[in-house]
Design brief:
This protein is of the alpha+beta class. The chain has 17 helices and 20 strands. It is flat and about 80 Å long.
Length: 499
Amino acid sequence: MSCLSREEVVELLSSTETARVERTVSTTDTDKFCEAICAFANDMPDSRKPGYLLIGVHDDGRRAGLKATDKLLKDLSSIRSDGNILPIPVMNVSSVSFDDGDVVVVEVEPSNFPPVRYRGRTWIRIGPRRSIATPEEENVLIDRRAANFPTYDCTPCQLATIDDLDLDLFKTAYLPKAIAADVLADDHRPIERQLEALSFFSTRYNCPTYAGLLLFGRNPAQFIFGGYVQYVQFQGKDRASDIVNQQEFRGNLMTMLPKIDTFIETAIAKKRPVPVTLLREDMVYEYPKWPIRELVMNAIMHRDYRGNAPARFYQYEDRLEIENPGGLYGKATRENFPKVSDYRNPVIALAMSILGYVNKFGRGISRVQRDLTINGNPLAVFSTELVTEFLVRVQSSTEQGLVEVQCYQSAISALTCALKDINDVRKSNIVTVFEMIYRNNNIQISAIVSALSVSRRTVCEYIEFLKGVGVLRREGGAHGGTWKVCSPEFIARVARIEA
């Protein structure tokens, strides 16, 4: 349903384009959509009202006969979290149907943290004109952001000065990734204004923000006492066990994050032998790199930096535990986590996204769970009971989990090889039958017939093919027996996570 009524959409169609309304007939010009969304989020006229991108409409307001598909709506919605528009805009996508065509409405709220950039460029609208902001116009947006209630990371640290920042690190390692090259070449503002444009400095107070110190500080611990990560490896299953290894990761995030990344790859994501047969062993990961990296980076991104406690990364005999100061924040609650997320440190989150240390916004946890399952680890367990702490626990890969993974991979390998010379429609149907039986080994042939809209005889041919390949067999009779595949539970878990 549209956030606007049908009458309101008609009214927008009958008016001219303004600073709050843009029309287009295109359904594929992603750059144009993103530039418009960016401009509406910046709200240069300071209307403090939403902007509207109307898709499927000619410049004069006539509808273009568009059919609003689910794919189009999903593609437009995904613009919000694909990491190209930063900070993330608040927007809603809907459609309104008319006899002569649908109208897709993208509603964009003004940002509390301008300037908002699309691929490093700040887009604005003044009247019907959309363009890249000049340095003077961008300064207006910066001053407007300063008037909003800041989060801790964009709060000025009045004990520090610009000399406490490693400016070479900012200019050579960060700025080229954050701002488009042509925009950067035309930016002749002083370094203080460049830092301020990215929330790392306050010219009003003439000092760095806490985000600036965390990312580029020469000695962040001088101002942020708990801004480090503590790693400890215990020999046993609790903290009373002997310590095997310990390490502290200190310094600014620009230098700390690559070190943590390398440490996880070399010290945590290690392979170990697992017996497959009496004569053969396979090397498997005890903990896969990407999920552990994602969880540690999330801890650094979401933690509360106001206290003195570090983020803790503890390894026990049978599990990893990642604990960081600060419970769930903002809109995220025990009831809606992890479906809803919020950002305690939006400037740090934006910087880590630009640097490539966090995944697409809102998708990290589901991918963590999927990759853990595929590696043979149980699902990560998130503890949200504590108000001041957030804990995630990851068990090491289990023998049963690894057996399931190996069986599934063997089945897929055999099936892929057998299908290589079969036409696409038949291939797709056979794979669908395999997956349906894999998810439910008690499924009836009639249910498969209904799902595929083919004859019972055709489904039986598909099943005989799967039996001939060796990925499926029947145990018991037609009434009361079950299909036997590697592990129905395994693919069911993966399917639930992906959903």
